[in-house]
Amino acid sequence: MSVLMWLAGAAAVGAGTIGWMRSEAGGYRVREEEVVSDRIPQSFDGYRILFITDIHRRVLSEQKLTSNLLPVDCVFLGGDITEKGVSFQRMRHNMSVLLRIAPVYAVLGNHDLYAGKDAVRQVLRETGVALLSDKTITLKKNEESITLSGIRQPASKKHPYTQFRGNPKEDSYHIILVHDPIWVKDREETNGDLLLAGHTHGGQIVLPFAGAVRLERFYKKFKSGWYSLPRKVGDSLHTSRMLISRGFGTSHIPLRLKCPAEYHVITLRKKP
Fold first, then answer.
1. Has residue 122 got a pLDDT over 90?
2. Alpha-carbon distance 29 to 67, whole Å?
3. The pLDDT of residue 156 is above 90
4. Which UniProt keywords apply (predicted)?
5. How far is CA 81 from the centre of its chain?
6. Contacts of 149 (CB under 8 A, 6+ apart)
7. Would you say residue 166 has pLDDT above 70?
8. Which of 66, 129, 144, 188 stands 20 to 30 A from 235 (CA)?
9. CA pair distance 174, 149, nearest whole angstrom
10. What does the alpha-carbon distance between residue 179 and residue 211 come to, in Å, rounded to a whole number?
11. CB atoms within 10 A of CB 121
12. Considering the domain 3-270, what is its CATH architecture?
């Protein structure tokens, strides 16, 4: 084989790989999740949550997002809604798309802070998205309720997380929405039944054998998928479940490898 033929073959493989990586980054992969607990009220049996996080620079297509999406009761937005350099008009468009699906509850991520937290908050307020900044609210259905807490993203790693306001009732099913899963580090208890997080992008670029090379040590353990954590100290009856999403957008480069973009539909089920 001549050098020219080898170079042509290598170029073709490279172009194909880049095309595949762009496809993974720009896809609309919905993951159906089911959470079963005897703490879920009967009225919330079958309650459906659209969970999407780390949109970053992407523009939401309402047609693609909803083409295979059955009705949901609410949308949870897990931070990094935008990033520095992205027009706020794009953010308004994305929020409008989500609000036409269901009521939207959000927390901010680190890139939202870099983009200008006051401006981001204003867009959320103007479009009708409920921002939960260390705040707990009640979601009601047929005289029954569950609680939802949103954790405020610290300004930097030097700033600790603060305690969210509001004390959910002990018998209330409690969902915690937090951008960065590092919130659980060194915690003996979560005080929540279901934690939803993003931030990691699942590593975004996952190499064969080497794995996700860009993740820091903590995130190599808490990369993506489902995890079980202690809900209360010494409580073996109720465990907290945490879902870390690979996210919908990308960071730094618009490419993914062995780590496709995703969003989730989580169905709550009352354990018989």
1. yes
2. 11
3. no
4. Hydrolase, Metal-binding
5. 10
6. 132, 135, 136, 137, 164, 166, 168, 174, 175, 176, 177, 192
7. no
8. 144
9. 8
10. 23
11. 16
12. 4-Layer Sandwich (3.60)
